[in-house]
Amino acid sequence: KAKEMRCGYSKALLKPKLSSHETALGLPCIRDLMTQALEQCEVPGDKADLCVAVLEHFHELWIVCLTRVCMLLAVIGSLINPIIHSCCDPSIRKSINYVKARLLTARGGHT
Questions:
Q1: CA torsion, points 33, 38, 44, 49, in degrees to nearest 10?
Q2: How many CB atoms sit inside 10 A of residue 111's CB?
């Protein structure tokens, strides 16, 4: 039986036979194919090398996306943290009530 090559299935695919320079030449082509900027292009190496290049590209894309998600969560946490502290910390609530009373007094309202 002929063994069908499945990308990412064989551990032998994890070791590229191409140099890093040759792999770097193929990555822009793969990126352009994925974004449909090109219909076809030449990538150095055989099917296994192409498989490794595609997997590396998806891995890099995944890392970039995860980094952005983590940064977004950190920003959201930084925005929510003062709100949580203002609701839970009695000294902050007392300060907010004091500022609110001063503003109402300055406008001539009732405290």
A1: 10
A2: 8
